[in-house]
Here is the input.
Amino acid sequence: MERIPILRMGPFLLITIQVDMHDKLALQLQDDVTQRISEWGSYGVLIDISSLEIVDSFIGRMLANIAAMSRVLGAETVVVGMQPAVAITLVELGMSLPGVRTALNVESGMELLYGTLGVRPWGTGNDGNEA
Amino acid sequence: MSKLGEIISRNEESIRTDWMKNMTSAIQRTDLMSKTEMQEQSAALLKAIARSASASQSLDISSADWTSVRELLQDMSGSRARQGFSPSETASFVLSLKHPLFTTVRSEMAGNMNEMFDTIWSATELLDRLSLITSEAYMVTREELISRQQQELLELSTPVVKLWDGILALPIIGTLDSSRTQVVMEELLQTVVATNSKFAIIDITGVPTVDTLVAQHLLKTITAARLMGAECIISGVRPQIAQTIVHLGINLEDVITKAKLSDAFALALQKSGRAVVRVGNASGATGSPLPGFAKEG
Here is the structure.
């Protein structure tokens, strides 16, 4: 069965969604993410949806759910790389994903996660959010 | 009907001269169209009418026999609309053919009153319908013009400017309606992606009034930008607008708002870990050039 891979990057999980999400895949992902967080004790989840071009309310709710579940398990969620059309669709659907953090790309998303932990990822960086 | 066509074809030259002579200066508008061009158009139209009137058995100008006349009139009327003729001037051009035509019919059929009346009746009916077509084509051209200008206005009025690396500004001028918000939102989000900007300042100094609908549109744009990972700051809130927002009970608590664009820019710089400092030690200088800017040695 098709699955979305979950990569482990130190204390974080990296999920890149590169296929069109359908409902079954989304539910599977929810299962896997919660499983991995508790298994590896991750502090953060980074979901890259830059290749996602079509969303519906179900996918929107799935993102909110993953964020809420991760928070219960003690991990921060950052959604990165949302396309303009996707953002507009979600707003028109009335889903503003209030509990989800967002960033422009994987790099700034990582920085955001490191920021919440109080650890600088690459020592000398001076272009963060917390300055 | 064919009789009318016959009369026109036989007297084409004299009708045309008569037509041009009687055409008042208001219809000719020599300032907009040259006399020779007008003569060419009249000749072409008269010829087409004569041909169609001879060929067709009926006055039904929507039939195939009249296609050439219809197209000719639509072309003429369209070009006149663009040149700046008024609708009545355009319609009078066709209607002014009545006088020379009736005069000709009268002299041709002087002996037979009944036939003359019938012919004149069909001629007047025909010309009325043709002038209606002319007016309609005029309107169509005008409407196209208006919708094109509307589109151009939409595109013109939503520039997204880059203030600094990672800081965009979107000065909105004019009222925000749904279609405009759509354009503004798309433009802003595209630019956020293209320039990789973390901050967007929406300046509403040029928005005359803010009601619940406008506020809702603004909030939608801000939420969409947030979903993509960019933070929005609203600036240019005038005192009256601040009062209106509170009186209407619009909830802008999750949004950062500032009175001036410079305040918002300063905040964006500060949030991205930058500061503006004065070079050297300019004597007598008090304070930083913009309020809120960190002053460092």
